Amino acid sequence: GQQVMQIPQYQHVQEGEDFTTYCNSSTTLSNIQWYKQRPGGHPVFLIQLVKSGEVKKQKRLTFQFGEAKKNSSLHITATQTTDVGTYFCAGPISSGSARQLTFGSGTQLTVLP
Amino acid sequence: NAGVTQTPKFRVLKTGQSMTLLCAQDMNHEYMYWYRQDPGMGLRLIHYSVGEGTTAKGEVPDGYNVSRLKKQNFLLGLESAAPSQTSVYFCASSYLLAYEQYFGPGTRLTVT
Q1: Which residue in the set B40, B98, B102 is minimally distant from A101, CB to CB?
Q2: What is the pLDDT of residues B50-73, one digit of tens each?
Q3: Distance CA A31, CA A101 (A)
Q4: Which chain A residue's Cα is nearest to B4?
Q5: Per the CB < 8 Å rule, is A2 touching B42?
Q6: CA distance A67 to chain B (A)
Q7: In this predicted model, what pLDDT tens digit does every residue of A12-51 receive, in sequence order?
Q8: Is the CA virtual torsion A57, B97, A29, A110 positive or negative?
């Protein structure tokens, strides 16, 4: 089963409010990736974090990787309607002799104008 | 560069029918993947390939087969479709295994 958990599943915010989604893994990750999927679209890679405690920013988006490399967060400041979509975290998890990218179930963000 | 393309975009099958989904990428990536996406379940890996002629099972491989005869193409087959296979199917490719993945536009499959 899935070993990458993501909360919340849904989030509705007023435009201009902040938004945060959290990702937790049952195992230590070598990296964490974040993807965005617009309604009706396909997942698009946003960023990858590799180092313990790493923080990266992309305009209004701030991504953090936990010290233990088992959790991560994505924070959006002052949401806009263009932020609408589902945000997924994903981490490489070993399954048998293979390593697979395991996705969280996603957080669906709705921004109310 | 077209990136990752998928055909068809939509398909309706009756239970027991078969079909093949085609994925093509023009980025010279070694690694290719097939995922299915169901509401509330995120993306689940069906099969993947680490190079031409090699494939491996993912998290939910039952009922599907794949082939990678050419580096740029990855085919997903359903031999006998079941309603439980109603889903959106995404193909993806990457330069390194389990690193940044590029997704195709998806195929919406309905099995009645």
Answers
A1: B98
A2: 999 999 999 899 999 999 999 999
A3: 10
A4: A42
A5: yes
A6: 21
A7: 999 999 999 999 998 999 999 999 999 999 999 999 999 9
A8: positive
